[in-house]
# Entry
Amino acid sequence: MKFGGTSVAGTERIRRVANIVRAQAAGGNQVAVVVSAMAGETDRLVTFCREANPLYDPAEYDVVVASGEQVTSGLLALTLQSMGCKARSWLGWQLPVKTFSNHANARVEEIDAERLLASMAAGEIAVIPGFQGVSDQGRITTMGRGGSDTSAVAVAAAIGADRCDIYTDVDGVYTTDPRIVARARKIKHIAFEEMLELASVGAKVLQTRSVSMAMKHNVPVQVLSSFVDEDSPPADSLPGTMIVSESEMAKLLEEAQVERQTVTGIAHDKNEARVVLTRVPDKPGAVANIFTPLGEAGINVDMIIQNVGRDKGETDVTFTVPQAELARAQALLEDKREKIGFNRIITDAKVAKISVVGMGMKSHAGVAATMFKALADRGINVQAISTSEIKVSVLIDEDETELAVRVLHTAYGLDAEEVAA
Ligand code: ADP
Ligand code: ASP
Ligand code: MG
# Structure
C-alpha cells in the first residue's frame, strides 16, 4: 500500500490512513506501507536548499529532501501503534533500498527484503518512507519527484506482493486529469504500455519509472483513493484502476469486459520549452552539429521539426528541451554558433505539449488528422508535432492548454455522460 502526499497531510489524515492499513491487516494480509512526505513539504525543503546555496550539491540536497518521508513514516508507525497494531518504520538505509548514486534522480538497484519479510511474517506492519534510498557509498539518495510511487512498486516486487495499491487523491486513472476536464472518465483497466506512455507525457498520477518497473517485474498495480467513507468498497474488490499486462488486456477485450478505444487518454505537460534556430545551413551534418553537443551535455531533446528549406540552402530547426535546461541549452548553442552556423536563436518557455495515447491507434488511421482538425476548429496553432506507435503529441501555446485538452477529450468521444462529482 502506498499513500501520497495529500493522503498523509497532517496527523488527522494519517489516522485515516492507519485505519485503511489496519483493515487490510485485519483481513489477514501481511502489509508493507510506503508513504510520501506531507503535501507541499518536499517543495518547501527544495526551496530551503535553493536559498542555502543556488548551486547546491545534490548529495546534500538529498539529505534535506529525504527528511519529509522520514517524518510521515514515523508518524504512521506511531499512529498504528496507538491503535494496538504492531508496526515499525524502515528507513531507506535500514532496509536497505540500494540505489545507484545519481543523487536527486537515483534509480533503484536492489532491495534487500529478507529482514522485512521476517518482520512482516511476525505480524509487524512495515512502514517505509518512499522516495529515499542509499548509495554504494552509504549516502542518502532520492529518486526524483514523485518517486514514492517507484519505491512502492520496488518494494512490492522485492517481497513478491500480490498487489501494489497506490492510494492518492483521485479514485483511479482517468481519461485525462479530472481536475481539468470534469467529464473525464475513470478507466477500469489500462495496459502497462499505455500507462507508461501517459505517465511519460505528463499524467503525473504515477511516476513514469514506477510503471516501467511494474511492467518489468509484472507487479499488478491498482490506483485508488484514500479519501473514502467507512462503507465504501474495500481495495480487494478493485474499486480503482488496475494496470495490467497486454495479455490480460487482450483477455478482457475478448470477454468484452472492456472496449478498445482508439484513444485511451490525454495528457499535458507544461515543463518543456521551445527553441528555434533560424537559417541553419541545409546540408548533411547540420542537425548533428546541433544535437550532438546537447546530447553530450545530458540535455534531453524531445520534439524536433526541421522546417521547409528557405532560399539559399538554409532552413529553420525547431525543438523542445526541458524548461529547467533551457538556459543551459541556450548557452551551449551560443557557444557552438560558428560550428552550427545559425542566424538567430529564439526561445519560448510558454508552451505546452498535449498528447493523445492509445493502443487502438496501431490499427486505426486518421488519429492525428482528428487531432489537428479539432485544434484548428478552435483556432489553436500547432507549433511542433511528434509521434510514436501509440501516441501523437503537439506543442501549443501554454495559455491554450485547458481548452485543447477539453476539445480533444470531446473529439475522441471520451466525455462521460455525467460530470464527475
Ligand atoms: P500523490 O501525492 O498521491 O502522489 P499526485 O498529485 O502525484 O498524488 O497525483 C495525483 C494527481 O494526478 C491527481 O490529483 C490528478 O490531478 C493528477 N492527474 C493527472 N492526470 C491524471 C489522470 N489521467 N488520471 C488521474 N489523475 C491524474
Ligand atoms: N515527496 C516526494 C515528492 O514530492 C516524493 C513523492 O511524493 O512521491 O516528489
Ligand atoms: Mg505522486
Observations:
- The CA atoms of residues 45 and 51 lie 10 Å apart.
- Residues 4-7, 36, 146, 168-170, 173-174, 176-179, 203-205, 265 surround adenosine-5'-diphosphate (ligand 1) (CB under 6 Å).
